[in-house]
Amino acid sequence: MEKTRLGGHYLEKYDEELEAIRNRVLSMGGLVEEQISHAITALGSGDVGLAEEVVQNDMKVNGFEVGIDEQCSQVLARHQPAASDLRFVIAVIKTITDLERIGDQAERVARMALQLARKDRPKNQYADVVSLGERVLAMVHGALDAFARMDVEAAVQVARSDVAVDNDYESIMRQSITFMMEDPRTISRAMDVIWAIRALERIGDHARNMCEYVVYLVKGKDVRHISLDQLEEAALGKKPG
Amino acid sequence: MEKTRLGGHYLEKYDEELEAIRNRVLSMGGLVEEQISHAITALGSGDVGLAEEVVQNDMKVNGFEVGIDEQCSQVLARHQPAASDLRFVIAVIKTITDLERIGDQAERVARMALQLARKDRPKNQYADVVSLGERVLAMVHGALDAFARMDVEAAVQVARSDVAVDNDYESIMRQSITFMMEDPRTISRAMDVIWAIRALERIGDHARNMCEYVVYLVKGKDVRHISLDQLEEAALGKKPG
């Protein structure tokens, strides 16, 4: 938060409010990470109870979004934050939108886990899907960590790992379509897998968005809609190579 | 905007800035509507040039998002808006996130139009997909209109129409999967259609989000993550019957 402000009771309360928001975003992030983790475990193991729990818990994620948005509005109205504090509040408003949508995608994976639990399981027990899930979970964890530590370098690194996620996704997608063509009886199952990996791929995109807000927060630069190389240059001030 | 403020040079400039933001959101909305419209026309007619234009123009949509976000940050920093003005700025920050993602989905439809243009066309020329596209375009138009006129009643009506969009989507989805099972040679085409209708269905969701921000803006109530009946009651203060 701003280091240049004077102390005093009023400002202490202000700092406390910003700190409370920060902690609540991290709690929301922790819940969302748990949702992803449970959803992919349920998919890999066919654990129906765990999948149902994920579906149930999505409303908790939604509750966080509404509550944190309300806190941000109050801070804006009461304290008129400026400079880096204002960027912090804006970054939070955007981050929790992505976190909430990551929660929706985790719920979607859990719903596909429920569908797949009723069907014959392939020999590999969806190991490739689980591995993609672990990759995107690591991205979300990394993005939250970069946010907590305001670590631009880590944010850039996490954003870069989205490329590997997209590659994994494309590879499972191609394979699923091949299976469908070879044996139309697998179409229904392959479609469930496709929706699950699509949801996981979207989680990677949202994690990348969160990394862009970290750069905005720390550097004051809007780095959306640019290439990864441009992002790295804007964030770290060096040409990647 | 706030009606209770005193006049004067400073506040006139403030009002002008809020009005400029409002107009820019509507311009962004107009561009996004055009993108959806062109994408579904391209898909229905197989017009490759038009589809390519949509893909190209997505960066204009992105540019609007970045520019409006910047204007909002400046207004927050310079004028410390309160009450309904603050809600307006927050509603804009959220609305343009959805508009930008609608733009992404329109681009996705255009990319599927490019894929489908190379393949045999079905007898109905994708009339069902085009009709779904027209429905979601009407939703986006209605949501922008409700925003421009701060019309809560219209916002509720548009949100309600998302149900019909979801039904259309489910119906085309079931049919596509049936076609795939009956004739695996149609799998590749059916998958393109599925990605296109999925993108259109997501546009409907984003339009519904925009309607929720209109209710927040006008009524100061957060109506996300609740049922349509609860939304109507919160927005219009009456039990739907």
UniProtKB/TrEMBL annotation, chains A, B:
Coiled-coil region: none
GO cellular component: cytoplasm
Pfam families reported for this sequence: PhoU
Keywords: Cytoplasm, Phosphate transport, Transport
GO terms, biological process: intracellular phosphate ion homeostasis; negative regulation of phosphate metabolic process; phosphate ion transport
Cellular compartments annotated: Cytoplasm
Keyword Cytoplasm appears in the UniProt entry: yes
PhoU domain segment(s): 26-112, 131-214
Annotated family: Belongs to the PhoU family.
Function: Plays a role in the regulation of phosphate uptake.
Subunit structure and binding partners: Homodimer.
NCBIfam families membership: phoU_full (TIGR02135)
Protein name in UniProt: Phosphate-specific transport system accessory protein PhoU
Species in which this protein is naturally found: Thioalkalivibrio denitrificans
